Amino acid sequence: MTKRDVVFPPGRQALYEQNRYSPAVRANGMLFVSGQVGSREDGSREPELESEVRRAFENLNAILSAAGCTFDDVVDVTLFLVDPEGIIDTVWKVLAEFWGDAPHPTLTGVGVTWLYGFNFEIKVVAQLSKEDARG
């Protein structure tokens, strides 16, 4: 089996190890990022929805940056939302701060009943540059 080429953002490795998953894995020129929620460094949730969504994007950007990427390199996005109708307007408001200009990545939104105490999660796949694809 090939060893996974894992990407960790600065300062959060212990949190990922505690929860037994990798924040992102490089493979075949792509970066596969685990779903990111609005958790603080200690794993607790931001108390307000807008802050929670913003923190999820900040956590995502930290992983992308650690891999030499930006949101502009993202080609596919999956959003998971508890109570989609109740939170979608807030999500779109915050998303616009991070999304960038067209052309936009593909997007799938999924309504869920539980996200480990969170309201929002974002999972992406990004294209690595040739240099970053080698790790």
Verbal overview:
- This protein is α+β, with helices and mostly antiparallel strands and 135 residues long.
- It has a single domain, classed as RutC-like (60s Ribosomal Protein L30, Chain: A, 2-Layer Sandwich).
- The protein is 33% helix and 29% strand.
- The chain is built from four helices and six strands, in the order E-H-E-E-H-E-H-E-E-H.
- The protein has a six-stranded mixed β-sheet, covered by helices on one side.
- Helix 2 crosses helix 3.
- It is globular.
- The model has no long low-confidence stretch (mean pLDDT 93).
- One of its GO terms (cellular component) is cytosol.
- It comes from Sphingomonas palmae.
Keywords:
alpha+beta, six-stranded mixed β-sheet, 60s Ribosomal Protein L30, Chain: A, 4 helices, 6 strands, globular, 135 residues
Largest sheet: 6 strands, mixed
Relevant CATH superfamily? RutC-like
Give the uncertain stretches in residue-range form: none
Mean pLDDT metric:
93
- Give me the Rg, rounded: 14 Å
Give the number of DSSP strands.
Answer: 6
- Order of strands across the biggest sheet? 1-2-3-6-4-5
**What's the domain count?**
1
User: Number of helical runs?
Assistant: 4
Could you tell me how far the N terminus lies from the C terminus, measured between alpha carbons in angstroms?
18 Å
Helicity level, as a percent range? Answer: 25-40%
- The secondary structure category is alpha+beta
Q: In the CATH hierarchy, what is the architecture at level 2?
A: 2-Layer Sandwich
Strand content: 25-35%
CATH topology: 60s Ribosomal Protein L30, Chain: A
Topology as H/E string?
EHEEHEHEEH
Overall morphology? globular
